[in-house]
Write a structure and sequence with these properties.
By secondary structure, this protein is an alpha/beta fold. It has 10 helices and 15 strands. 36% of the residues lie in helices and 22% in strands. A hairpin with a 4-residue loop joins β14 and β15. It is globular and about 65 Å long.
Length: 361
């Protein structure tokens, strides 16, 4: 009997069904708290883009969604995961100190900035220093899941490091029925490859232009090899064009709420890269455009602690649903705000008060 594509898909369906029936996972949910809007899960073999303007928090929300969230899911469920975090903007130590700030708050409920940790203006108190040292075992386990890499800058270097890790959990050999040279993963680990920032990639010798290099990273390295062949997840952070960061108004000079929502056309560099992503998130701040209220939320009170997240591309699901988030840049945390309805006035008031207390410190 001929080997049908149907048979391979049926086998995959059965295996996924058996995994979930046993209580195990096949993907990683993205969790911002309870709400009606469900975001796409982090699935194997899919590419995710995160688009935002300068200083809006795309690196922070990417760490929250694809590093902290992945590690928490592993701790909560035992679902084996590995994040290969390629830092193309900052070095490992700078990224790691930001991660320390997040986990010091998560573990001890103490807000610390990188400047405080490094005693930039005031010496770090001994009690805080001892607290950090006592958390070494925790951070050792975190590092085993989230690996920050700052010495790979070209598509080939990134792919080489990914392939190096792939060889530790699988092999490139002959897989009966599927052809020679195909990658076969023998250890059940969900691998997430994160590149921050996608457009900071440097050219290999084979790339004649920066544009050619970025397109090759998207089409060949990300989509064809890392997603389709290895079945790893991929996350790329994308810079929004400065043109779309201007204050938008309608014909009457009134601020236009919908006009500030990023679109695929808002991508700053090589826009065709959007075609290679399965899912694209966009993050934006109404306060940056001087809105006093935005879709029912009091931005004058929330100020720059409010962000909106929207899915602007989703090959397998719904797009353009907006999610309001409460953002704390020191803690590197995001919490889903309740819908701006009359029924939620009291709960929203507590979030407004929290924002005001933060600004009055």
């Amino acid at each position: 009997m001929a080997d049908l594509i149907f048979d391979r898909i049926a086998k995959r369906i059965r295996e996924s069904k058996e995994v979930r029936a046993s209580g195990r996972w096949t993907s990683i949910p993205i969790n911002f708290g309870e709400g009606k809007i469900e975001l796409p899960d982090i699935e194997r073999g899919k590419a995710y883009g995160v688009l935002a303007g300068t200083g809006v928090g795309k690196s922070t929300i990417s760490r929250f969604m694809f590093a902290y969230n992945v590690y928490k899911h592993y701790k909560d469920t035992g679902y084996r995961s590995k994040v290969l975090f390629f830092a193309l903007e900052d070095n490992t130590e700078r990224v790691y100190i930001r991660m320390m700030c997040h986990y010091i708050f998560e573990k001890f409920k103490i807000e610390m900035t990188p400047a405080m940790i490094l005693s930039k203006r005031v010496e770090l108190p001994d009690t805080y220093y001892d607290m950090i040292l006592a958390a070494r075992e925790f951070f050792a386990e975190l590092e085993s899941v989230v690996e920050v890499i700052d010495d790979c800058f070209t598509p080939n270097e990134i792919l080489g490091r990914v392939k190096e890790y792939a060889n530790t959990i699988g092999s490139f050999g002959f897989n009966p029925g599927e052809g020679a040279g195909k990658y076969v993963q023998t250890e059940d680990v969900h691998v997430v490859v994160l590149v921050d920032n996608f457009f900071n990639v440097e050219q290999d010798e084979e790339d004649s232009t920066e544009r050619e290099c970025i397109i090759r990273l998207a089409r060949t390295v990300m989509r064809k090899i890392i997603c389709n062949e290895y079945m790893f997840s991929f996350v790329g952070l994308l810079q929004m064009s400065f043109e779309y960061e201007k204050r938008p108004t309608d014909r009457n000079g009134k601020l236009d709420e919908q006009a500030i929502v990023p679109t695929l056309h808002s991508i700053g560099e090589v826009k065709v890269t959007a075609r290679s992503f399965h899912v694209m998130f966009a993050l934006y701040s109404p306060q940056r455009f001087e809105f006093k209220t935005y879709y029912g939320y009091n931005i004058e009170r929330l100020r720059d602690m409010c962000r909106f997240l929207v899915v602007i591309k989703n090959n397998d699901g719904i797009c353009n649903q907006k999610m309001a988030l409460f953002y704390n840049p020191i803690r590197e945390t995001f919490h889903r705000l309740p819908p701006s309805t009359v029924e939620n006035i009291r709960e929203l008031e507590s979030w407004y008060n929290l924002a005001e207390r933060n600004y009055n410190l």
